[in-house]
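Each record in this resource describes a single protein on a pair of labelled lines. An example record follows, reproduced without changes.
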Amino acid sequence: MGRVTLINSVLLAIHTYWAQIFILPKKLLKDIEATCRSFLWKGTQEGAGPGLVAWDYVCRPKAAGGLSFRNVQHWNMAALGSKEEETIAHLFFECGFSRSCLQELKKILQWNTPAINIHQLLQACHNTKRFSAARKSMVKTILASSVYFVWKARNEVLWNHQQWLITTTVKKAQQVSKMRIKGLLPKRAKDEDKEWILMV
């Protein structure tokens, strides 16, 4: 039972913090399972070949004949509150909260693009002729800030059980973006672009 205790308290616990924040790559999760499986059956970190019992069976509760190990892939999804596999596109900006934040930012920027995920938004910003280079810099800065603050808002829910308002998240993204862009504006930026940036 010593190995079981070590696996539960050390090997399976190491990834817990990151698993509650990010969708971890499947390859990494399989490597974690392989290390635990190898340690359980052979007492070493690395070992080729299957275990004596299927890993899915080992992960069952003790009452069902297993050892109550966490299935790291299922647990990663559960820790993030998701029954389905999340993607970058879902997190930024297809889930309800982040989509609402994005809609508010689009109104502020007066940007009527149909793009809804981060890749589409960056491509739309690059391709548009509506914005000058200075304004494109501001749009990209706001997108980067909104990704950060949406992530931070999700962490507040996860760790502190506090839900940020959409307006709070958007305002934080605006404020940080203005501070950053002021120092990066080219000297040749037009006055109307500078005014637009200050108004955003």
Q: What stands out?
A: The longest helix spans residues 133-160. The mean pLDDT is 82.
